[in-house]
């Protein structure tokens, strides 16, 4: 894989700093999911960016503090987000609705991923253990 040596496009739309991003696992077009200190998550199609269109497809909002990490399932139908609000969210990409919310963590949640066959969410943060939850 060769990385570009020039800027290909510029994504805009968040009112805060970008904290996390994830490139979806599709061949073409590629989609980009971003999390921000403005507490929102944006889904972009960078191939649609023009001077009058920032490529934004969907906005997801539920976090009470900054979004720190994102993970996407292999079928791109769901994603998980974590942040400074000590919560883990499981989202449906198409409907922009939360499917599950896990609370009760002792501090901010810094990272998230999918385990097994994508049927469990693994999260870790500022505490001394890893939290794994199965769904649905």
What would a concise description of this structure say?
The protein has 136 residues and is mainly β. It has strands at 18-23, 32-36, 40-44, 56-61, 67-72, 78-83, 88-92, 97-102, 109-115, 120-125, 130-134.
Architecture overview:
There is one protein chain. The chain is mainly β and 136 residues long. The chain has no helices and eleven strands. It has strands spanning 18-23, 32-36, 40-44, 56-61, 67-72, 78-83, 88-92, 97-102, 109-115, 120-125, 130-134. The strands form three sheets. Strands 1-2-3-4 form a four-stranded antiparallel beta sheet, with no helix packed on it. A hairpin with an 8-residue loop joins strand 1 and strand 2 (32-36).
List the helices and strands and how they pair.
Elements: E1 18-23, E2 32-36, E3 40-44, E4 56-61, E5 67-72, E6 78-83, E7 88-92, E8 97-102, E9 109-115, E10 120-125, E11 130-134
Antiparallel strand pairs: 1-2, 2-3, 3-4, 5-6, 6-7, 7-8, 9-10, 10-11
Question: Mean of residue pLDDT?
Answer: 81
What is the percent of helical residues?
under 10%
| Largest pleated sheet | 4 strands, antiparallel
Strand content: over 45%
Number of helices: 0
Low-confidence regions: none
- The strand line-up of the biggest sheet is 1-2-3-4
Cα gyration radius (Å): 15 Å
Q: Strand pairing plus helix content: what structural class? A: mainly beta
Work out the number of β strands.
Answer: 11
Distance N to C terminus = 36 Å
Order of helices and strands: EEEEEEEEEEE
What coarse outline follows from CA principal-axis ratios? Answer: globular
